[in-house]
Amino acid sequence: MVGLVRVSEPSSESAAAAPAMAPDHVERALLEARDLIESTVIRHRRELAQDSWAGTALEKVPLAEVVDTLVGGAERTVWVVMPGGEEQTDAVCTALARSAEGVHRSVDVRLLCGERTASANAIRALARADPRCEVRVGDAGLSEVLLVDGQLVYLRGGGRTDPARGGVRQATLVEDPATVRALELMFTGAWGNAMALAEYPRLDGRLCRDSARRILECLRTGHTDEVAAREMQVSLRTYRRHVAEIMRELGANSRFQAGVRAVERGLLPSRH
User: Fold this and answer.
1) Where is this region: Disordered (predicted)?
2) For 131, which DSSP code?
3) Which residues contact 46 (CB under 8 A, 6 or more apart)?
4) What predicted TM-score, i.e. pTM, was given to this entire model?
């Protein structure tokens, strides 16, 4: 004999509670569905773009198009090595500004800049305006690298050109998991040794000039003020004023320490 299960009527208490819970639950479900749809659309667009690049040399695809497509399709991470190229700086800043308006506003963005890029107003403005972005200053000798979601890497040669391809800079898109992981580890190591943009001395560009580097070298080697001022062909008073400014920006308590910190921050070459 088949038993019958009787469905009881909802109690008055549960009936009263249901209307209060339902709208919130439905809203969350709709938001999750929207995010999933937008994420799928973005990924699909990125894949279509990559398919369209397959028939041509990647270095012939405009840099802005590649960066915009890869950054716009990122879901978790965007890590960039920016040694100082103006074209790359403009492309990255534009792509990040556009992606900040989309669904993936919580993407982890890390910009590892060389000295030239760190001085660019666009980078400093981006660091202030975009809460996703963390900017550090490190080795300026690196090539341009864009790592997305730990899945693919876009490499662009640092000033090197390929004569066989019309003299344009070499570019590669890497998707091999082992290679991507190795490049990701290299980035992480360089990132750990870099300094925060806010701590990087700028001095309105004075530290980038030859005269400032010569002063830093004098501080590191222990030259007396009189000897250093004579070598630089400036007055003793002017030399000491420059020294005070440099020490203040470097946060150094002594002249020798200023020389050491200049090496640590890449403002002077290290001595082996």
Assistant:
1) 1-20
2) T
3) 69, 70, 72, 73
4) 0.59
Q: 144 near 155, Cβ under 8 Å?
A: yes
Question: Nearest 5°: phi and psi at 219?
Answer: -65, -40
The β-bridge partners of 21 are none
136 contacts 123 by C-beta, under 8 angstroms:
no
Q: Is the dihedral of CA 151, 156, 158, 164 positive or negative?
A: positive
Amino acid at site 156: R
Q: Which domains does the chain have, with CATH numbers?
A: 51-199 (3.30.870.10), 203-264 (1.10.10.10)
Note the pLDDT of residue 161: 47
Query: How far apart are alpha carbons 212 and 149 in whole angstroms?
Result: 40
Q: What's the Cα-to-Cα distance from 142 to each of 186, 191, 192, rounded to whole Å?
A: 11, 12, 15
DSSP classification of residue 11: P
Q: How many angstroms separate the Cα of 9 from the Cα of each of 13, 16, 22?
A: 11, 13, 18
DSSP bridge pairs for 78: 109, 148
The CA-to-CA distance between both ends of the chain, in Å, stands at 93
Give the distance, in angstroms, between the CA of residue 81 and the centroid of all CA atoms in the same chain: 6
Closest CA to 200 of 257, 251, 240, 243: 251
Q: Which residues of the chain have pLDDT under 50?
A: 1-8, 10, 14-15, 17-21, 55, 159-167, 203-205, 207-208
* Number of other residues whose CB lies within 10 A of the CB of residue 240: 14
What is the rounded distance in angstroms from the CA atom of residue 136 to the CA atom of residue 81? 10
